[in-house]
Amino acid sequence: MEFRGIVKTRDRNTKIMYIAVVCVLIVMEILQHQLFYIPIAFLVLLACFLEKEQIINEKGITTRLRVLTLVHENTWRWEDINSLGFNYKEKAPNVLLHIRWDVKMRSYVIHSYDSDGIKKLAKKMNPNIVIESFN
User: Fold this and answer.
1) What digits encode the pLDDT tens for the residues 103-134?
2) What pTM value is reported for the model?
3) With contact defined as beta carbons under 8 Å apart, do 62 and 74 qualify?
4) What are the chain's domains?
């Protein structure tokens, strides 16, 4: 079973606008001979193509970041996770899921109908996990 978090995505027009603004900045920096700022502008240009996925499955809880063809995955295994907290009011009608691993914490926004499945998966994969609900 696999569950996905709800992640905000940029629409196509916004990406095109960001790319156009960065290209104008690069041209202005070249014309004004401020070459120091060009690498920073290219980093901002790469940020326009950043995509984020949040995946909850049997392996654990994964955050996947993708920039063009580069992919970085950060997975927390179920054995390492101490507790899950479900906040039903803050992001209603969706649910805010707090995942704790020692002192680290991640927050995912999930669909309300996925919360029971995630609770069952968490108990199955780690019987010692603490599951809290905030109403």
Assistant:
1) 899 999 999 899 899 999 999 999 999 998 87
2) 0.77
3) yes
4) 3-134 (2.30.29.30)
